[in-house]
């Protein structure tokens, strides 16, 4: 009874907000059943639709905002109830080790709802790779949004994270960061979170300037949802020849409509990827008009890898992301002054 009541109220809230979550659930589940199954995709494709809806709600605190105003305790009651239900369902499909990864991913999703730009570092070893374990999450906020930074800090402390001030911020994003808070969970050291305060009015600029490898970017726009390239699913279709880069054909976006293509790139042809690849769009989400996310990568982008060597797949370091905003492209060789002033301006 409580389960049905929660779904009906949440559906009402999403209809009032004009959301697309419930509208897309049937199509999304059908789509992922056709994909190669890893533990995480198998988990989602076997969920009943209504349970999947509740998992999405669990990630999105904003969808229950009206209920919070009615009763401060109601959100706690709903969370405890949903957690128990999802936990029991998880036990049917996935081992305990993957259950922890699943909840960590949900924590990451909840952490990005305040708007800002985030970057995730994924553990490089293949055991973590197969289980989709985030290792570090950098959340960057503008110095003009102190309230968002404080809210994020309170959220993490409430979730059991211990905070520590980072004294030297110079190593973060080439001096773009004026303040950094490091959060580690009190009982688990698997995921560390850095809340960063940027001196730049553009949050995309310092994120895209950072020359990190083994990084996967997350773009959060309009202060309402998160865009996750392959956070929950780590399957990468890599061709047998080292001359090709495999581009995954799917991702899970918690109900957002996402389009994917199976496009293989010949590295010998696309040697200068920051120009050759700009015309290829592997994913586009309709929620970001004019913004396309492009996956790219080539051997020459790694420090210490000489030109002409065989393609080396180290798990995640072979790929990066860049955005096409309007007709412009942005990567390590582009003029970042062309970026918009803030994520909300996109």
Please provide a brief summary of the model.
The chain is of the alpha+beta class and 346 residues long. The chain has helices at 2-17, 21-33, 39-45, 49-59, 65-70, 74-93, 96-111, 126-131, 146-158, 204-209, 273-276; strands spanning 116-122, 134-142, 161-165, 177-185, 192-198, 215-221, 225-227, 244-245, 258-260, 265-266, 283-285, 291-296, 320-325, 328-330. The strands form four sheets. Strands 3-4-5-2-1-6-7 form a seven-stranded mixed β-sheet. Strands 12-13-14 form a three-stranded antiparallel β-sheet.
Structure description:
With 346 residues, this protein is α+β, with helices and mostly antiparallel strands. It folds into two domains: 1-94, no CATH class; 95-345, no CATH class. Helices cover 34% and strands 21% of the residues. It contains eleven helices and 14 strands. It has helices at 2-17, 21-33, 39-45, 49-59, 65-70, 74-93, 96-111, 126-131, 146-158, 204-209, 273-276, and strands at 116-122, 134-142, 161-165, 177-185, 192-198, 215-221, 225-227, 244-245, 258-260, 265-266, 283-285, 291-296, 320-325, 328-330. The strands form four sheets. It has a seven-stranded mixed sheet with strand order 3-4-5-2-1-6-7. A three-stranded antiparallel sheet has the order 12-13-14. The longest helix is centred in the N-terminal third of the chain and has 20 residues, at 74-93. The termini are far apart.
């Amino acid at each position: 009874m409580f389960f049905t009541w929660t779904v009906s109220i949440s559906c009402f809230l999403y209809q009032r907000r004009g959301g697309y979550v419930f509208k897309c659930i049937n199509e999304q589940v059908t789509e992922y059943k056709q994909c190669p199954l890893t533990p995480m995709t198998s988990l989602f494709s076997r969920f009943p639709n209504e349970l999947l809806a509740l998992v999405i709600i669990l990630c999105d605190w904003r969808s229950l905002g009206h209920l919070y105003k009615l009763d401060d305790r109601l959100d706690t009651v709903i969370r405890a109830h949903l957690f128990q239900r999802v936990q029991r369902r998880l036990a049917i499909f996935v081992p305990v080790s993957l259950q922890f990864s699943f909840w960590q991913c949900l924590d990451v999703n909840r952490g990005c709802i305040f708007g800002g730009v985030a970057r995730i570092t994924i553990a490089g070893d293949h055991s973590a790779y197969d289980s989709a374990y985030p290792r570090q999450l950098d959340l960057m906020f503008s110095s003009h949004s102190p309230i968002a930074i404080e809210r994020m800090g309170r959220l993490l402390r409430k979730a059991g994270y211990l905070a520590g001030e980072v004294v030297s911020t110079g190593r973060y994003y080439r001096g773009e960061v004026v303040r950094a808070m490091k959060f580690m969970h009190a009982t688990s050291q698997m995921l560390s979170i850095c809340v960063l305060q940027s001196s730049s009015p553009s949050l995309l600029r310092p994120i895209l300037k950072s020359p990190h490898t083994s990084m996967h970017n997350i773009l959060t726009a309009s202060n309402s949802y998160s865009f996750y390239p392959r956070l929950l699913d780590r399957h990468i279709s890599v061709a047998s020849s080292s001359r090709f880069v495999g581009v995954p054909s799917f991702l899970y976006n918690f109900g957002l409509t996402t389009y994917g293509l199976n496009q293989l790139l010949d590295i010998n042809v696309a040697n200068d990827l920051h120009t050759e690849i700009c015309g290829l769009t592997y994913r586009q989400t309709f929620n970001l008009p004019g913004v396309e996310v492009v996956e790219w990568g080539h051997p020459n982008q790694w420090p210490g890898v000489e030109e002409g060597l065989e393609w080396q797949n180290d798990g995640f370091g072979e790929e990066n992301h860049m955005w096409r905003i309007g007709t412009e492209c942005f990567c390590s060789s582009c003029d970042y002054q062309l970026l918009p002033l803030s994520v909300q301006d996109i």
